[in-house]
Amino acid sequence: MVAENIDDVVDGLAEIVREAVRTGDRIGYFAALYRQVTVEVRKTIHEDLFDDGPRMDRFDTHFGNRYFEAYDAWRRDRSGPRCWRETFGLLDDADTVIVQHLLLGVNAHINLDLAVAAARTGPGADIHGLRRDFLLINDILARVVLAVQDSVDALSPLLSLLDKVGGRTDEQILDFSIRQSREEAWYNAVLLAGQSEREREATLERLDIRAAVLARLIARPTGIVRPALELIRRTESGDVPTVITHLDRAMERSST
Question: In terms of C-beta density within 10 A (0-12 exposed, 13-18 middle, 19 or more buried), how is residue 230 classed?
């Protein structure tokens, strides 16, 4: 699928979520999170809170198409960027817990795709004009992540074990990862925006390899995190359609 605007991105993600609910496919976990973020970005555009709403529509469309391209490549012949292959390759792994699936999607989409989308939206020196709107999305993400984290807590009652073994609260797990990754993505976006085509190819190769390594660390952590994740897995919901639906309605519940 190819999106022409942010409405198409929302519709495309909604279709992936619906199909995932129907088939019990864990690909719907991250798609549900991503759909809600995109809906909130669209709302912010309509409320004229960005410096340049039409530019942010283009930005979000580029960003969404990166995900759709990876999704289509995986569905077609298990191809696509390394980091997305690592992410999609774990969809059938029942040992991977809900929060890991979310973090795997966040890792691939932000540590690789976000910089590409930003550089395409603001090539050359134009990238610097995108900075304020880019940062504003952090506030949008924080709202959505808080709501989704509440859903994950309800579905995965022992997730708080990661407080003790990971050194941060369960509410911070997703938010921390996203904010840290977005800062690095901005640096890489500025880099890509000023590079030649050959230089961009080398940078994208480096970013993809790094994100793929991070995906393996998320999927198979070492040390005391591993037994904690095993306990989490045993107690969290294994009903994939129900989990997707619960995640996809997180923002609705938070506004009531």
Answer: exposed
Q: Single out the residue of 164, 177, 43, 157 nearest to residue 109, CA to CA.
A: 177
Residue 139 in contact with residue 44, Cβ under 8 Å? no
Distances (CA, A) of 63 to 20, 56, 239: 21, 10, 30
Largest CA distance in the chain: 51
* pLDDT tens track for 171-226: 444 444 677 788 899 999 999 999 999 999 999 999 999 999 999 988 888 777 77
Cα(101)–Cα(96) distance, rounded to whole angstroms? 7
Nearest by Cα to 178 from 90, 114, 122: 114
Amino acid identity at 220: R
Structure letter (DSSP) for residue 30: H
